[in-house]
Amino acid sequence: MNADASKDLAELETRWRVRERNWARKLGRLRLGVEPLEEQLTRYRRTTWALAVVPGIIALMFLTLFTVFGRPDIGFVVILILFVPMILFAWLGYARLKRRAAAYLADRARFEEEKKRLLDASVQSTTS
Question: Residue 30 to residues 102, 103, 110, 114: CA-CA distances in angstroms?
């Protein structure tokens, strides 16, 4: 019975390594095993804020400039074409990355639970 448990554990580890490589590819900018994902996401969120604030300030300057010359409507169009997509895609990218990180952490927790279950079963079979 102990040989079966160790075989199952080795198979579980092998499957996890393959899944972890796939997760590393899906997570893109986030690096597994370097530092906690939460810290990386926090840094990425700060960068996203910067990618929202800086274009927002520039967009406000454009709107002010066009308003001074009596054409705020053209200013709004310029903002909608140039700056809104930049800000929107930055936040969508962050949301996608955060969602993928949460899915990875859930998958990792399931792996750890299964590994613990197999180790407990292996210990119980050796003590019996």
Answer: 12, 13, 20, 25
